[in-house]
Amino acid sequence: MQPTLVDRPAKARPSDWWALILLVLCYGLYNADKALVPVLIEPLKAEFQLNDTHMGLLSGLAVSLPFTIACIPMGMLGDRINRRNLLAMLVGGWSLVTGLTAFAASALALFVSRAGVGFFEAGFTPVSLSSLTDRFPPTVRSTAMGIFNLGAGLGLFIGMAMGGFVEVYWGWRAAFLVAGIPGLILAALLRLNTSEPKRGQFDDTAAPVTATRPTLLSAFEFLMRDKVLRNIAMGMTWGGSMLAVFGTWTPSLLRRTFDMSALQAGVQSGLIVGVGGALGAAAGGFIADRLGCRGLAARMLVPIAGTSMSLLIGAIALLGNWHPLSALALLSLAVFFGQFYLAPGYATAATLAGPVRRSVTLAIFLVSFNLVSYSLGAAIVGKISDLLTGRFGSEALRFAYILSFLMFVPAALHFLRARQHLIRQSQAGGSAQA
After folding, report:
1. At the topology level of CATH, where does 14-201+209-428 sit?
2. What is the pLDDT of residue 2?
């Protein structure tokens, strides 16, 4: 039965905030793992005789292909079984495989281990966001998802800084081993110290949450028919491509353009991508909730403004002849605005998807992000860098990085279209469906 105004909780409980804290920490490890390969690009290239194209594939396709294959089935599973138990299994699985990466003896073994990580990471984000949507009411939902996305920045900072530090003193293998241990502890805490939230308790929908779960085809058709969801998905896919560039290539950019050591590049990349990105994601969610009283369309102003500002500031940061500290400060600001879209994008999509198809809809989002964003975004920049190396030498990556900011143009346009459809929907009192 759909919750009524009598039995629907007025606000999130303390246990829901505790669950959010654990999920933030798990999401931190999820992203710390993703940061390890970028910060270890140079020693991995040297040991396994790889080039930038190979490293783009290792940090992108090796993880995103199994992620893409497993993500939607994981999302469908999240709509059917206990999400707490599923999340604990996923966190424990990728943590174990991350630790085992330390024992890779060849480039093939390295690719296989990264594929295993991608498989277990596949369901974490859609199932986590589905769980959070059922823990927090709409008035604070973007804020909660912004806090959740703090884990991305926290993880990137820890992964880059820790990876650079451990690599300098103990080698790249030790970095993977150290990264795998905390997740096993967090997996146990998730399983033993949190509960499963009631599905749909904050949703205003006529459909009972006990209704038959949608098939993959029906969920995909729903996403394609809904003009708002479709444009949010496209905007987040383009935006995610740029985030993949931030996470993958910033450490090498700093080493090649600013002649930093591995440790310096790791720490600085952590501050730029990790701290800057985390604050941007949280700020975007907070601002979106403040605008939310004016409707969902007002929330879309946040990703439109964020992607536009990031494009402008990023170009200024890397095209100008700045002092290194000034360039790094500007790049941090570009990353800050570049992550504004995450919380309002996810929160709006989760709200519109409804309780019976929430996890699988978010999983379809994640598949598009990883199939396009993390597979092609990082790899294309690596390929452009290789093509430009003959002419620009160590500066080739800087020019490839600058060009990648153009991906925020279609991102902003799709968020603008989503806003326009939401305005029309509100004026018509109907849906945004074709």
Report:
1. Growth Hormone; Chain: A; (1.20.1250)
2. 41
How many C-beta atoms lie closer than 10 Å to residue 305's C-beta?
17
Question: 265-278: string of b/e by CB count within 10 Å (b at 16+)?
Answer: bbbbbbbbbbbbbb
Q: How far apart are CA 278 and CA 152, in angstroms?
A: 6
Which of 31-35, 358-362, 406-410 bottoms out in mean pLDDT, i.e. has the lowest?
A: 358-362
Exposure letters 399-412 (e unless 16+ CB within 10 A, then b): bbbeebbebbebbb
**Which residues, at least 6 apart from 146, have a Cβ–Cβ distance to it below 8 Å?**
281, 282, 283, 284, 285, 286, 288, 342, 343
96 CB-near residues (< 8 Å, 6+ apart): 180, 183, 184
Please identify which residue in the block is written with the tokens 């509960």.
195
Cβ–Cβ < 8 Å for 275, 407: no
- For residue 166, give the amino acid letter: V
Q: What is the pTM of this model?
A: 0.72
- pLDDT over threshold 80, residue 428: no
Closest to 371 measured CA to CA, from 71, 171, 12 = 71
Q: What is the pLDDT of residue 93?
A: 93
Q: Burial, 429: exposed, middle or buried (Cβ in 10 Å; 0-12, 13-18, 19+)? A: exposed
Write the DSSP symbol of residue 433: B
> Is it the case that residue 133 has pLDDT exceeding 70?
yes
Query: Domain-by-domain residue ranges, the chain?
Result: 14-201+209-428
Q: Is 428 helix (H, G, I), strand (E, B) or coil?
A: helix
Give the model's pLDDT for residue 9.
Answer: 54
Say how many C-beta atoms besides its own lie within 10 A of residue 169's C-beta: 8
Task: Note the pLDDT tens digit of each residue in 40-70.
Answer: 878 888 888 777 777 777 777 788 788 888 8
- Give the angle subtended at the CA of 125 by the CAs of 13 and 39, to the nearest 5°: 120
